[in-house]
């Protein structure tokens, strides 16, 4: 069965919410909508305090090439613009809106009818994705309209759709594939038209047989789309590993998928593209998994951006008394949050509540040179060395050893028998190396 060749692990899946259908979470009394829910420059706010906005109305416009529009997820009055601590723990600017009813902009098609005919041209599709604020919903939140513009001199042979969802606990993509399969495949066809390709490969790990069977049957009606079952192995959802698994092409370090003729989009992104192009619906809500072993009502909820995480927890039965840690995202790549009033954003795929007995870090012991971290690294790096170099502030050497190539999947820390915080130090070193590289670039620009 297809998979990537080097490294990888298979942590316990804990897909506790896999059979729980998507439920809509009602709009809260107020929302806090950050203007940076994507990689790139924050959007520029275009509303003022006291303005009345409708659901789906644009409230902040993209700024620069790599940026994305932001839309209101509710109707009501703008209370203020201020800073807020987001799910990353950093302050950023946000629009605070007090909810009044639920009045949507008139151009959104709110019917349940599936629209198959694609009327927009390739350029119009790309423009619609820009207007609608579509970003990658697999976690990276890269503005989708940019990925649809193949650079001059390059060619895209394959569109690859990521339905892997290899992070333990998360099931939001799985439920979308099961419940909105036809809409997703129409979205894939739209993406194919935008890219000018005639082949799309949909990768799904074989622990999701219902999604594989459902989409395989549906795909018979769609030209050029094939569904591929993949061996279960983390981090197969990473772009480079998925490309290797499906088309056996290797993306070199420092290069992009399009350099080997591929463009990768997430299954959830394909659904968002369908809604934007066929229903005129901007991206202002998404499916989020809220789960944990001791939660009473874990589930998958359609949540409006700006909704406090607290509301999700309440919908899932409340905060368990034994909660020791709350993680935004999956347990492998997600980050702990200490404030449940942080807002849900476009990149929020899941919120996991871990009991205290599973939240404590292992005791840190000296490295025993077992090389397990090397054997599980899907990018063939030497994580123990990168940690040591970061720990000793040897950032120039860390850069030479390829620390910026690390995708921060966490396989090294997960596999370390000595309990060493490898990923923590690699993240520190990677951030420092990137900052130093940026400073060098600025100095060179100033010199020239």
Summarize the structure.
The chain is α/β, with parallel strands linked by helices and 448 residues long. Helices cover 29% and strands 19% of the residues. It has three domains: 1-22 and 122-360, NADH-ubiquinone oxidoreductase 51kDa subunit (Rossmann fold); 23-99, OB fold (Dihydrolipoamide Acetyltransferase, E2P), CATH 2.40.50; 372-447.
Would you write up a description of this structure?
- The chain is built from 13 helices and 17 strands.
- It has 448 residues and is an alpha/beta fold.
- The protein folds into 3 domains: 1-22 and 122-360, Rossmann fold (3-Layer(aba) Sandwich); 23-99, Beta Barrel (OB fold (Dihydrolipoamide Acetyltransferase, E2P)); 372-447.
- Strands 1-14-13-17-15-16 form a 6-stranded mixed sheet.
- α3 (172-179) runs parallel beside α5 (209-219) and α10 packs across α13 (422-447).
- The longest helix has 26 residues, at 422-447.
- It is globular, with a radius of gyration of 22 Å.
- The termini are far apart.
């Amino acid at each position: 069965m297809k998979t990537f060749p080097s490294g990888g692990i298979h942590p316990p899946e804990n897909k506790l919410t896999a059979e729980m259908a998507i439920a809509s979470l009602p709009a809260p009394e107020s929302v806090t909508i950050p203007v940076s829910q994507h990689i790139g420059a924050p959007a520029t706010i275009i509303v003022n305090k006291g303005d009345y906005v409708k659901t789906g109305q644009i409230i902040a416009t993209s700024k620069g090439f790599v940026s994305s529009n932001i839309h209101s997820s509710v109707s009501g009055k703008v209370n203020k613009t201020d800073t807020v601590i987001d799910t990353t723990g950093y302050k950023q600017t946000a629009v605070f809106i007090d909810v009044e009813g639920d009045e949507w902009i008139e151009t959104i098609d709110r019917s349940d009818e599936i629209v198959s005919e694609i009327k927009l041209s390739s350029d119009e599709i790309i423009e619609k994705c820009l207007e609608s604020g579509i970003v990658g919903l697999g976690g990276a939140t890269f503005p989708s309209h940019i990925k649809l513009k193949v650079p001059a001199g390059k060619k895209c042979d394959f569109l690859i759709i990521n339905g892997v969802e290899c992070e333990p606990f998360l099931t939001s993509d799985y439920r979308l594939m099961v419940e909105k399969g036809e809409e997703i495949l129409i979205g894939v066809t739209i993406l194919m038209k935008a890219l000018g390709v005639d082949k799309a490969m949909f990768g799904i790990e074989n622990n999701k047989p219902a999604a594989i069977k459902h989409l395989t049957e549906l795909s018979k009606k769609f030209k050029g789309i094939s569904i591929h079952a993949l061996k279960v192995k983390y981090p197969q959802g990473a772009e480079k590993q998925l490309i290797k698994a499906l088309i056996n092409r290797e993306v070199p370090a420092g290069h992009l998928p399009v350099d080997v003729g591929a463009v990768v989009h997430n299954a959830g992104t394909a659904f968002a593209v369908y809604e934007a192009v066929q229903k005129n619906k901007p991206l202002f809500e998404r499916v989020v998994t809220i789960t944990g072993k001791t939660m009473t009502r874990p589930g998958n909820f359609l949540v409006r951006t700006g909704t406090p995480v607290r509301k999700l927890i309440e919908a899932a039965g409340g905060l368990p008394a034994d909660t020791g840690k709350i993680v935004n995202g999956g347990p492998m790549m997600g980050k702990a949050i200490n404030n449940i009033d942080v807002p849900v954003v476009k990149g929020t795929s899941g919120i996991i509540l871990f009991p205290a007995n599973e939240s404590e870090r292992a005791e840190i012991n000296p490295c025993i040179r077992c090389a397990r971290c090397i054997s599980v690294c899907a990018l063939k790096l030497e994580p123990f060395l990168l940690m040591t170099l970061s720990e000793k502030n040897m950032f120039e050497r860390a850069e030479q050893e390829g620390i910026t190539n690390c995708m921060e999947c966490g396989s090294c820390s997960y596999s370390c028998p000595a309990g060493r915080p490898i990923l923590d130090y690699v993240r520190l070193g990677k951030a420092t190396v990137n900052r130093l590289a940026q400073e060098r670039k600025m100095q060179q620009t100033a010199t020239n």
